[in-house]
Specification:
The protein has 104 residues and is mostly beta strands. The protein has one domain (2-100). Helix content is 0%, strand content 45%. The protein is built from no helices and eleven strands. The chain has strands at residues 2-5, 12-14, 20-25, 30-33, 39-43, 48-52, 58-61, 68-72, 77-80, 87-90, 98-100. It has a six-stranded parallel β-sheet with strand order 1-3-5-7-9-11, with no helix packed on it.
Length: 104
């Protein structure tokens, strides 16, 4: 597993084509482009992010914050929300997608 801590400003993260597992800490505008494998991404801080998940049955887990996520996925993704009210905007048509809301 890898931990990514973003700095000040809008950071961009591009994942390779293998299976990627990472924890992300960046709350000011992160853009993630997934790889061809199954990516598992956990947000440990407030997520204000754009995620283009690439291919593979990817998994996103949001932290216990009021997260704002713009999501692009065409082949199936699983998103688990935190304990606050999360906003998820789908920028593409989604299929085989699972959203598990938290307690918020």
């Amino acid at each position: 597993a890898t931990t990514v801590i973003g700095g000040v400003g809008a950071d961009m993260l591009t994942l390779q084509g293998a299976v990627n597992t990472l924890t992300v800490s960046d709350s000011d505008g992160l853009s993630i482009t997934g790889g061809a494998g199954i990516d598992t991404i956990t947000f440990s801080t407030l997520a204000i992010a754009t995620v283009d998940s690439g291919t593979g049955a990817d998994k996103l887990t949001l932290g216990n914050f009021a997260n704002i996520l713009t999501l692009s996925d065409s082949d199936g993704i699983s998103v688990t929300g935190g304990t606050n009210i999360d906003t998820i905007i789908f920028s593409t048509v989604v299929t085989a997608t699972t959203i598990i809301g938290g307690t918020g």
